[in-house]
Design goal:
The protein has 469 residues and is mainly α. The chain has 20 helices and no strands. The protein is 75% helix and 0% strand. Helix 1 crosses helix 12 (254-281), helix 2 (32-44) runs antiparallel to helix 10 and helix 10 (220-232) crosses helix 20.
Amino acid sequence: MAATGGSGGSKARGTFGKMGFILAAAGSAVGLGNLWKFPYMAHRNGGGAFVLVYLVAVLLLGLPIMMAEITVGRSTASNPVRAFRRLGGKWWSLVGWLGIGTGFIILSYYSVVAGWTIEYVGKCLAWSAQGFTKADAAKVGSDFMAFLARGDKQVLYHGIFMALTAGVIIFGVKKGIEAVTKVLMPALFLILLLLVAVAATTSSFLPALERLFLPGKIGARGILEAVGQAFFSLSLGMGAMLTYGSYMSRKESVPRSAAMVCGLDTLVALMASVIMFTIIMGVPPDQRGKFGASSVILFTTLPEMLYNLPLGRILAPSFYLLVGFAALTSTISLLEVLVSWFIDDLGWKRSFATVTVGLATFAMGVPSALSFGSNEFLTSRFAPLAPKASGFFDTFDYLAANFLLPIGGLLTAIFVGWYLSSAFTKKEVEEGHGPFRLHLLWKTLLRFVCPGAIAWILYSVVFQGVKFN
């Protein structure tokens, strides 16, 4: 079906500069999944074999859906709800509502985890000043668990992180999101380069590179996890790329911009893997089992490992600053998805919309902040999805990661692949790019490959008990 788009990138809503979209979108994609989950899964699933499957999945799944979201956003210059409504009508607007709801849920608990970085930047500065002793190493795990059980601290840091996020959003697209990501993203890469440079001085660096880039054995489960990581790592299925696309200039190329975002996201994951593999390969094989999939490992196992590296006193606080930067660029995009609807559809001023939505998201996140031991009901007795998940935080994390995001991505692929006419999508992707000879391939991937891959993810969750959170 043919569709009529709006005038993309209106001045009233704000427009990203030449590199603004790429840095902001890359910041949205880069998060805790890049810094820990990707390295863990790659190490567990054949190293280079996992990386190879992941790269193929990014090309065949992640990049096409990212282009689809950006195209829908830029063609309408609208938030997710209005964008789908303009192009597809009332019923398709439900996909936009799904994205907004998913973003609200994820931001409410993601900012809780992000708040942990505030505590650990402070801890590492203290350890670096006083020295990281064997006594510190012996109790780092128990100290973290005690920190989780401190409901007051959890709520405080959750609130601080939400305030930082809202403080960026309130200044708008150009002076807020773009200005901050232009600082945070280069800083993030500089810290990564520092960590890689130090890793290169250790004896475990070359074994780490061999493990990461030489293919090993990988099974069907590993292939599935690589495909899932390629989708979940890119902030797809929740309207973030669509919203950022709505601020993208029509002079910029959608295919090139999407490819650069995917490339930067993958580069961060590979650089983080070099660092993590170097740390993992530097400990005896019988101790490597303590490196688990949960991001909790970032705060229990890694401090000691970081302080055992050369320049550990500099690296440890730098690493947690890196994690904080990555988390902040992600929370910024999530809040903007929500705020954009209140600005576009209700006509609210950005400042009022940001404060209102920020407070609502903070309130939604308080139960998650209290579900790590400070409140028995929220920690263990709240279990509507048992045995798949228990506790308030785990329940909503499981729901969002395993159902809401894949369904959002699936419906977006179907919408752009099947519902929007080829004439419309070809015109949109060629504006700012020139002739796009891969248009037919892109549409074919959206029609068949992307839905098939996401259906596989959903099937594995429903019928095989696989968890992607």
